[in-house]
Amino acid sequence: MAMNGRGMITGLKGKLFTNWAKTFSCVPELFFEPTNLEEIKQVLQQAREHNKKVKVCGYGHSPSDIACTTEYMISLHKFNKVIEVNKEKCQVTAEAGLLVKDLNLTVLPSHGMALRSLGSVSELTLAGSISTGTHGTGAKFGCLATNVVRLDLLTASGEVISCSREENKDIFLASCCGIGALGIIVHVTFQCEPEFRLWQRRTASTLDEVLENLDSHLYASEHFRFMWYPHTDRIAMWHVDRTTKPIQTDSSWFWDYLIGYHALQFAYWISTFVPRLVPTINRFFYNLLFTQPTEQVNISHKVFNFDCLFSQYVTEWAIPRENTGPVLRELKAWLESSGQVAHFPVEVRFVKADDILISPSYGRETCFLNIIMYRPYGKDVKYATYWEAYEDIVFRHGGRPHWAKAHKVTKQQFMKMYPQFGKFCDIRNNLDPNEMFMNNYLDRVLK
Known about the structure:
Layout: E1 17-18, E2 25-26, E3 30-32, H1 37-50, E4 54-57, E5 72-75, E6 82-86, E7 91-95, H2 100-107, E8 113-114, H3 126-131, E9 148-154, E10 160-164, H4 169-175, E11 184-191, E12 193-194, E13 197-206, H5 207-212, H6 214-218, E14 223-228, E15 234-243, H7 253-271, H8 278-289, E16 294-299, H9 300-304, E17 312-320, H10 324-338, E18 346-351, E19 366-374, H11 384-396, E20 400-401, H12 411-417, H13 421-431, H14 440-446
Parallel strand pairs: 3-5, 4-5
Antiparallel strand pairs: 1-2, 6-7, 7-11, 8-12, 9-10, 9-11, 13-15, 13-16, 14-15, 14-18, 17-19, 17-20, 18-19
């Protein structure tokens, strides 16, 4: 990165930032790519001198404007070094811009270690993966941030605060789902475990069957999830457990990519001209791809992660686990009566309760419901009516929106959703009284 005459890091002008799905973008006044902590501090010093806002962007996977700004933007993708691997404690400490993917592929395997649980994708920075409540699935597994042992937070004043459950606990519990509002996470220590393989079984069933026997399914394996295919009564479910079985994969270029990606994208593209085709497309691809049972055994991250296919609109809310059945049945009934079309799948995952101040799983066993409308070949599709109906249903059943995904919830509503929301706001006010880290997204949810 270039330096100015004062020896200070300089930013790029005219840099376009776009998220992965190409649904949100911005052009910051200056775009910085620091390589070390001192350079990050220099950016904040310049922001203080010129009264500028600062936002940090990760890999850009969030389907919202949470990272967008027209002032200063910092990318941490060059701030990505491993600081320490403690094999005795099975912990890894790294700079916050390191991708979870790189931890999975290179860092942890070389030390015989792995993360306990992962979300659907690992193209996320370490800081990004914990700041918005990223989660996997499993009744006994929390969101990714529950595996954080300690972190260092760089505040607007330039101070670095080290925090954990033993030191600066309140700041730690706020920062573990800090939505970019408290400062810049610069170092993270994750608790890992010895590397392991996972045995995944996929079977087909009906929505009624899985809902009627939800607890049995949920506790029958370590990591359980299912996907419902709108305009049908069918689901596919995945049971996943640790195993010592040898690696056995079931991937097929023909079925996974030619049919499950390219043919599906083309079919949904055709449906943008003839929307009534969507129910037929959903039934056809479900019957073609998901009715037969499958198994695979692989190293953990290759089972936890899966292909999110092509560009999409997506939203996700967290509801009390006991409301899983009522919400899905009401959503199914609304789709049947409204004539609205919905792409597949509706993804359903489960997360253990935690004590992170504004984690969507705070204080309760949680079900995450994710809905989707694809943008085949980047073409916009109508989704607003579906979104509004879905959000109305989950809101009435105690829902909390996923922080990384677009929503319309206000501070007044969040105060009722989260018992510790006022405490989080007080911590934010103390750490950033001049609102350096605020943007339009945070103004909507925190003011």
